[in-house]
Design a protein that fits this description.
Elements (H helix, E strand, L loop, with lengths): L4 H6 L7 H15 L9 H16 L1 H8 L40 H35 L2 H25 L2
Helix pairs in contact: 2-3, 5-6
């Protein structure tokens, strides 16, 4: 495509004012709009005129279009220069040997974790209360066998309580 192809599509000079570009676009849009012009190729020409107007009516796009090199078509712009990222060297306290993966928690994950922790705490606390009530009942009944069973239940209660507390601190 030629360099002044967008200007040629609208039929204006390169130094045309924005008002002149707008008037040329309106004139061609009325002439080539698909609702008014049913000839073959009118739709493609209307889209080409619309593209030219969108580029030339925007001051930034127009300046960029005007500053493009003559030898290279519009669609063959040079690729951006890719520079490698900066390498940051860290000292011993911050250096790791193996890569670490980090799990990102969402608010839904946190809410679910809190609900599960609450349910676990409620179940274990309820169970420990039952063990404690059973131990008191067996002690009240008296005898060697109830005393041994109450000791085992008390030990179980202590283990359950020690097991529950780490989960409630998170």
């Amino acid at each position: 495509m030629a360099r002044d192809d967008l200007y040629a599509r609208l039929g204006v000079q390169k130094d045309a004012t924005p008002e002149a570009i707008h008037r040329a676009y309106l004139r061609l849009a009325k002439k080539l709009h698909p609702d008014l012009n049913r000839t073959s190729g009118a739709n493609e020409r209307f889209l080409a005129v619309k593209e030219a107007y969108e580029t030339l009516s925007n001051p930034l796009l127009r300046r960029e279009y005007d500053e493009r090199p003559l030898s290279r078509p519009i669609w063959e712009t040079a690729p951006p220069i890719q520079r490698p990222g900066r390498t940051i060297r860290v000292t011993v306290p911050y250096a790791t040997r193996e890569p670490r993966s980090v799990r990102i928690r969402t608010s839904a994950d946190d809410r679910r974790r809190r609900q599960l922790a609450f349910a676990y705490t409620a179940v274990t606390a309820g169970t420990s209360v039952l063990f404690l009530a059973g131990a008191f009942l067996l002690v009240a009944l008296g005898g060697l066998l109830p005393g041994a069973i109450s000791f085992v239940m008390g030990l179980t209660l202590a283990l359950v309580v020690l097991h529950v507390f780490p989960f409630t601190r998170r």
